[in-house]
Design goal:
By secondary structure, this protein is mostly helical. It contains five helices and no strands.
Length: about 120
């Protein structure tokens, strides 16, 4: 139960941060290109890499912090960061086939699922 609360708190914080940053960037740079989302995704990937490295390097980086920062905040901030983290783990394991299937499958199947979802209600 404690882990769920830690992840939930971090996820809520990450989601609010994503919304505020995307809103702010959208107002500052009014272009058709989703710059806010792109910047949030890249920032989230940087943060998840930083937090992952911290968890590997420092023995005092407890599992609760990993849950809060990586699963919670980064997961709520952008699921793209989690996708990036999952791909990093596959690369570190040398699972190249799974890496390629996951990378391509996530993009292609994700887009197809979105298209099917929107087509169902047209």
């Amino acid at each position: 139960m404690k882990a769920l609360l830690i992840v939930g708190l971090g996820g809520a914080l990450g989601s609010v941060l994503r919304y505020v940053i995307s809103l702010f960037i959208g107002r500052q740079v009014p272009v058709v290109f989703p710059l806010g989302t792109l910047l949030v995704n890249i920032t989230g990937c940087f943060l998840i890499g930083l937090f992952y490295a911290m968890s590997e390097k420092y023995t005092g980086f407890h599992s609760e912090w990993k849950l809060f920062l990586i699963t919670g905040i980064c997961g709520g901030f952008t699921t793209f960061s989690t996708y990036s983290y999952d791909m990093l783990v596959l690369l570190k394991q040398g699972a190249m086939l799974q890496f390629v299937l996951y990378a391509a499958g996530s993009v292609i199947l994700g887009l197809l699922a979105t298209l099917v979802g929107t087509a169902l209600l047209r």
